[in-house]
Amino acid sequence: MIVAYISGASKDEESVGVGEPIAVGVSSEVLQWELMLREEMRKQQLPEEYLPLVMALIMQESGGHGPDVMQSSESAGLPVNTLRPAESIYYGIKHFKSVLAMAGVKNASDMENIKLMLQSYNFGTGFINYAKQNGGGYTKELAIQFSRLQASKLGWPSYGDIDYVEHVLRYYTVANEIGGLSGGAANPIAKKATEIALQQQGKPYIWGATGPLGFDCSGLVIYAFTMAGHPINGRPTTSTMLSGTAQFKAIQKNQLKVGDLILFKLTSARVSHVGIYLGDGKMVNAETDQAPLGQQIRTVQVFGNSYWEPRIVGYSRVQ
Questions:
Q1: Which positions fall inside the NlpC/P60 domain (predicted)?
Q2: Which of 122, 187, 217, 230 is catalytic?
Q3: How do beta strands 312-318 and 261-264 pair?
Q4: Which of 82, 142, 187, 214 would be a feasible disulfide site paired with 209, CB 3.0-4.6 Å?
């Protein structure tokens, strides 16, 4: 089971505030450590707002599987996977808090410094000094350079994970980091699902896939709403989304709000495509596997567009 986790709220809560940190797509195996994480964060005086980021980090490090759930044995000067869960969380939170301070992270929405902090969690705090000496903050180029430098010094074939920032942040977002939501949302879940769908841009289109590594058009809808706390039952097709079921209600264009679905007939006589409405005549959709990777899942203009608008066949709302 994979869910979305909002700091300071129950998992069933339907609202998300501006600037709210969210752990997206974390597994139930990660969530099982929530109480232990909260207690350790309280003892070490790490603010609760960082809990979603800690969960995202654990999702990358171990997927929540023990014993060393935060992969912090090396931080304690021990061989890999030596620590048991409670010890792993103790040393992991201690290291997390230390690197957070060294990187100058101001709050859970300070994404630029969070990137520096995350790469330093993986590389070690020497990366912070290296970054400050070479421009002041995190860049992917600096991560690559530092990795090569350390590997050469140690005589290793490689050093650390140069993609660590991207790997962790695929499980983490901040509500006000996502722009472009114009007008009111159909409901809080629809707004949250739209924000989650936008975060999938840059991932590949894969036919039949429902995430988290890739999606087809209906798979993106299923994933986004499921991660927002509203599971979509079964594997509905675009035709089902249009015709209406207990979970999909047909609506008119003048009822369209952020988070509603737009259905299309593209190259055949049947309903074959769906996107999630963003407002301002735009949608986010898993579009094609024929485009460059960054354009396979993307935001496009629908209304006023000579390709998209004539192919619309209807609108639907997830309920």
A1: 187-319
A2: 217
A3: antiparallel
A4: 214
